[in-house]
Amino acid sequence: MPYPAVRSAAVQSAAVRSAAVRSPAVRSDWPKSGGEASGRPRRAGAVTLLAALASPLVAASVLGALILHLLAGLAARLPASDALGALSIMAGMALVLVTLLPFALLSVRRAHRAWADMQGALRR
Fold first, then answer.
1. pLDDT score recorded for residue 84
2. What is the pTM for the complete model shown?
């Protein structure tokens, strides 16, 4: 039998979970559509737009440099390895790409969206 404090905490957490399932919180003050609902403001200043563009560009550049550095480091080990070592190095390269490439592409997409917002704001 568990310690009474542990048992009561488990009972309390079960009660909290069941209460949360029974009465979901519905926010009626959220906008139905538009800028704030999609996470993008409708109007922003030039400094804000420039900062929104710079951070994803820096993130994409750093991630790209990290990917290239890791792949080059693994490729440098390739000539001195046997067949099984070459396979493990290629698996390491694939792991580097699978792990880091989605984040780099996400940063590029955010930078493209910020660039489009900045161009739209400058046209107004």
1. 92
2. 0.57
